[in-house]
Amino acid sequence: MTTDQSSTETLRNEILADVQKECEEIILNAKRQAEIFLTGIDTETKRIKKEKLDWAYAEAARRSELILSTVPVETGRLRAARIEALLESVYDEVRKRLLAKEGFQYKDSVILLASYAINHMAGDEFVVKLSEDDYDTIGINITDEIIKRVERPVNITVLKEPDISGGGVIVEDKEARQVWDNTFLKRLERLWPIFRRHIAVQASFVPKIGAAGGNK
Q1: Is 159 a member of any domain?
Q2: Is residue 212 one of the residues assigned to a domain?
Q3: Which of 100, 129, 154 is where one domain is finished?
Q4: What is the distance between the alpha carbons of residues 121 and 157, in angstroms, rounded to a whole number?
Q5: Which domain range does residue 115 map to?
Q6: What CA–CA distance (Å, rounded) separates 59 from 55?
Q7: How many CB atoms lie under 10 A from the CB of residue 55?
Q8: Residues contacting residue 11 through CB under 8 Å, at least 6 positions apart
């Protein structure tokens, strides 16, 4: 081999060695970049996963709190509905007994209703109207009894009123300018708000007024 051939071969080998070295460095660098990239992906994946978990926990807590916050409201609504149903049943029972004239002295009650109305009306002449049934059974016997319970001298006329149902009386002055409907059902209707409150307090459905702090 000549000197020129030897020099050429040496140069070629050096070039190949440099190329091989550069290729190895490129490959090594590519591996490093790939590892860095994969590590970044793994980190980002974990971060995204954690964010989703955190959001899921927060959403679950929010929904749980929302549901729990509605429990007292729903409980209160159901309790109020139950109390109202019970009070309505009491009202219906009282109304039923009044119509059936059960549990009280009917004649005395009619006399009391008439005299109460007259005592709270002006004038000295009145008409007391009874239902047809009441007029036929007790009408002729109550005039004097009503007058005895009125706190001043008055004249009373007892009449039959076909429109009255359920018992009780309607009282008018002579000119019919003052009219007091004291039939049982109408009186129950007027007084029911007071009775309703009293029943609710006695049954502990609602607190007594002034109960806080020991005041009564």
Answers
A1: yes
A2: no
A3: 100
A4: 15
A5: 104-202
A6: 6
A7: 10
A8: none
202, amino acid identity:
Q
- Token pair, residue 41, equals 């992906």
What's the CA gap between 150 and 154, in Å, rounded? 8
CB 140 within 8 A of CB 157: no
Burial environment of residue 188 by CB neighbours within 10 A (0 to 12, 13 to 18, 19 or more): middle
| ∠ Cα 141 118 95 (to 5°) | 75
User: Which of 48, 82, 100 corresponds to the end of one domain?
Assistant: 100
For 65-116, what is each residue's pLDDT tens digit? 776 666 677 777 787 888 888 889 989 999 999 888 888 899 999 999 999 9
**What is the SS3 string spanning 141-189?**
HCHHHHHHHCCCCCEEEEEECCCCCCCEEEEEECCCCCEEEEEHHHHHH
Name the one residue in this structure whose structure tokens are 């549901």.
67
End-to-end CA distance of the chain: 129
Task: Specify burial of residue 114 (Cβ count, 10 A radius: 0-12, 13-18, 19+).
Answer: buried
- Ranges of the chain with pLDDT below 50: 211-216
Nearest by Cα to 107 from 151, 147, 146, 152 = 146
